[in-house]
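Morning F.,

Quick status update on the modeling queue. The single chain you submitted on Monday has been processed. Sequence for confirmation:
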Amino acid sequence: MLPVRLQSRPRSKVALNLRVVRRATLSTWLPVPEIRHDKVETFRKTAFLPSLPAKVPIGTFQVIPAALKWFGESRNKFNSSYLGQFASHMIPLELTRHLLPVDAKVNTISFQRAEAPFNIFLGWAAQANGDTPERLYVAQAPLNRLPKPLQDDLPTPELVATAGRGDVYDASVWLGVAPTYTPLHRDPNPNLYLQLAGRKVVRLLEPGFGQTVFAAVQAELGRQHSSKFRGEEMMKGEERRLLEAKIWLDKPAENQEKFAGLETTLEADEYLFIPTGWWHSVKSIGTGCTASVGEPRLWAAFLTLITLYL
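Structure tokens below.
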């Protein structure tokens, strides 16, 4: 990717925002700071050292081939003529069914994971819309298990190659049709997250706030599950409902925990840096297809270069 020189946001403003988040007493969502940069030093000062999420806006890096080949001209639909070449390839799918509610206490969402041919997803996506009760989502499909042409469409960024870390370990792809939803969780490693198509809103909580919210949900459920090991329980049932209510209801009930966090809307070709330990929940908005890729490769490159300054 060829960087484009843009001015960075002053560090003092970023630090001030973080202090506001830590001191806030109401359920408040502040914008994720933007880093308009082409230098590792800028990233180190404004995101890495303060362990602060940062958004890299459109125009900072060159558009990658997948963004041009996997979707239609408007990036609103998947390009079935191209992706259909890989119809028989097995991919990880999540199936969520929204069932008709019987009463307020009945679980109205069922969830399961399975490996299935890619054409199952492509056929569903071609006719799905926001009202489709059965939702399919390609979630965390490992890049190194995709067909070689699709891997080539997500090339190792120039920055990574320069740093000498050009492999594709741990990179993952997400494909779906809006609306999609990922409950509150935290990842074991820092990450750079690239939006390929569609729009997603990401809400983030720093580690202390996120742990407080998670513990409150577990207390309401009468259990003490570890926040490090999350399973299907967060994707369905009462835990899913409680997590969504605490993060996405902008007018919390009087007895709900009060906290503050960061929020951003990712457009196609924008990146989001999420530091280790930061909790986040993601919702796609609008209509049509949505696609993202998690880029630990980029993070590895940044980390390799950053150590030169420490």
